[in-house]
Amino acid sequence: MKLQRFKEIALDGTVRQNPTFRLVLGTCPTLALTTAAISCLGMGAAVTFVLICSNIIISLLRNIIPDKVRIPCFIVIIATFVTLVRMFLEAFVPDLYDALGVFLPLIVVNCIILGRAESFASHNPVLDSACDGLFMGLGFTCAITLMAIVREVLGSGKLFGVTLWEGFKIGFFTNAAGAFLTFGLFIALFNLCYDAVERKLKHKAAHNAMLQEKAAEAATKEA
Amino acid sequence: MDIFGIIIAALFADNFVLSRFLGICPFLGVSKKTSSAVGMGLAVTAVMVITCAVCYPIYVYLLFPLGLQYLEILVFILVIASLVQILEMVLKRFSPGLYSAMGIYLPLVTTNCAILGVAELVIGQVAAGTEGAYHVAGVMLGNFYSGNFAMNYGTAVVSGLFYGLGFTLAIVLLSGLRQKADRLHVAKAMKGFPITMLAACFMAMAFYVFTLI
Questions:
Q1: pLDDT tens profile B26-56
Q2: How far is it, in rounded angstroms, from Cα B177 to Cα B180?
Q3: What ipTM does the predicted assembly reach?
């Protein structure tokens, strides 16, 4: 795989097509788990693992799976890995297993994973798909952890489970309404920054093109 | 828990979308128009009821006695996927009117986490009720026949139905709010998902009041 392609996939996964803020996929765990940053990291790790593994397997099988039954096939592959993660967490990290609750089995129907299987892994080579899984997972993890930090600090005065201060707590941020508000504002903020950067890059590209044109003109005149 | 308590909880206090955060994707994605919101709500409700009705016996009579609980995710998702397919075919054949109202939303229902969520939650409560007899198959079966499961068959199906209706209520209400919000002038960055999230935020506040009763 070329470096250019790798960069492209990395940038797509983490920023340009950030699954949480740009594509708004996998919203259920995003809203439900962002009251504690630690469990968000755990969720992110679990999703990333499942994404990488399912992308690899689906990419390997992409020429074998018949087109008509591809969705059930993808779901079975994903469900297998989710079962593995669930058994692993239940045995070795029971605290995290309890914190994730019903959202751990629900990774199966997380639209990020099925979406990447459908739109990327099913028609791309193995290495590309693995990278795509890794960076999509990272994008998801960063997004939910950021949201969790805001909600945890404002809502319960803690950060990663460590108490920062006593007394100042806005309970609103720990319940459902706060989740929707934080998520909405985060998407708006992300879009704002994204558009600003995009515009700047476009200006820069246009400016560079103009300079090059001028230089070329000058060169032809001299000649 | 008695049936009435389950109904009120499933519709309002424990609403799937607004307090459990399950099925958010269709909640945001298919709520642009009230007619499509109603169709989606009906499809989800129908599949939820059938899922509860089918997954319960599979878990209680098949997986649990054989000690295969770890297969539950795989089995449930396969059951749901095939149920949706069958329901779609049956509707197409026997009830074209209903099919045109909710048929197009059925394929989307397969990957709706509310469905797998209801199976996991209801069956999870079933399993919790038998924890004491977890390993001894004989005791466990005895437990079941004497009705010691935390949730019996009827309760499981009824809670499936009302969780589905709770979903329908939330998505139809949101579609009304969105149609109003479309006519407002909002900042460019707030258009689309953010303003919808804000509407959902206010709805969640209203529904939160029911948990205080």
A1: 888 888 888 888 888 888 898 889 888 888 8
A2: 5
A3: 0.79
